[in-house]
Amino acid sequence: MITVLKPNTTKEQQDHLIKWFEERGLGVHISEGQDYTVLGLIGDTSKIDVSLIESLSMVDSVKRVSEPYKQCSRKFHPEDTVIEVGNTKIGGGNFAVIAGPCSVESEEQLTTIAEDVKRSGATMLRGGAFKPRTSPYSFQGLRADGIELLMKAKEKTGLPIVTEIMNADHLPLFKDVDVIQVGARNMQNFELLKELGKTDKVILLKRGLANTFTELLMSAEYILSEGNQNVILCERGIRTFETYTRNTLDLSAVPVLHELTHLPVVIDPSHATGMSRLVPPMAMAAAACGADGIMVEVHNNPACALCDGAQSLTPAQFDEMLKKVTKIREVL
């Protein structure tokens, strides 16, 4: 349930009402907009008399949130959430560019790519240290050593780093990681999500390859319900009957999710298409439909990449793509 307060409500009145809600066992989430303050009530509100709350002079309106995801809901939090990662902002009109190799392979490889993508305009560096692979015989990543190399690249370039976690037991290794990515396969690993919700880390949550928007938001709700409000949603393609591309990029996710939730939404055109030549047009389409950012795989020698070379852009291709993405955003 949400309670919208009138613009002239005093701090004393607001605090008094919040205390009244808390005395009835409810948690209260405060969202202050430009004109109105919204109190989101967390817990069992079935015994709250709506007509009583509506009768208060400070209250503009009271609404029950029908969606199963409460804290993610745009009704609960009308204003866009803007997440800060170092000097980078994402959401609320701020556009993030996350770029880097699928897998961390060596210090030289990672540092070279990091310097190249930063020069082109990337605002965050991605790189896989732990790699979930379909085959047990495929390269599984450098693991803890990979995170150390990411930290060295961050030290040299200043770019915040984004890397994927696979197990809650690995959390101590991620203490200096700026953004923890939850991959598509782990989107409904609820025990992992609850542990991430107890941290103050920014979480980039990827949509599962066969999951609905509601299921994605319910997974985000697991994180928010534990106290961590720093969640970024990522559309990375879903599995359909089409086999020409790796997945089917669902760009409708951007406007739909922006209607349903206040959380930022980014697009991953690399995993969605699986083909480097399709990444630039899909990245431009992401910018055109209002995404809050893109995440693109870049490798200085895709033919020799240990993971997903076919979908990786070269630094030169990335630079050219980002120029076009920037022009589209300028038009918008």
> How many strand units?
14
By DSSP (H or I, 4+ residues per run), the number of helices equals: 10
**What low-confidence regions span 5 or more consecutive residues with pLDDT below 50?**
none
Write down the overall mean pLDDT. 93
The helix content, as a percent range, equals 25-40%
Question: What is the topology?
Answer:
Blueprint: E1 2-5, H1 11-22, E2 27-32, E3 37-42, H2 50-54, E4 59-63, E5 83-85, E6 88-90, E7 96-100, H3 107-120, E8 124-126, H4 144-157, E9 161-165, E10 179-182, H5 190-197, E11 202-206, H6 213-225, E12 231-235, H7 253-260, E13 265-267, H8 269-273, H9 279-288, E14 293-297, H10 315-331
Parallel strand pairs: 7-8, 7-14, 8-9, 9-10, 10-11, 11-12, 12-13, 13-14
Antiparallel strand pairs: 1-3, 1-4, 2-3, 5-6
Helix pairs in contact: 3-4, 3-10, 5-6, 9-10
Task: Give a written overview of the molecule.
The longest helix has 17 residues. With 332 residues, the protein is an alpha/beta fold. The radius of gyration is 21 Å and the shape is elongated. Helices cover 32% and strands 19% of the residues. The strands form three sheets. The chain has an eight-stranded parallel β-barrel with strand order 7-8-9-10-11-12-13-14, surrounded by five helices. It has ten helices and 14 strands.
Summarize the entry for a quick read.
32% of the residues lie in helices and 19% in strands.
Features:
about 30% helix, four-stranded antiparallel β-sheet, about 325 residues, eight-stranded parallel β-barrel, alpha/beta, single chain, elongated
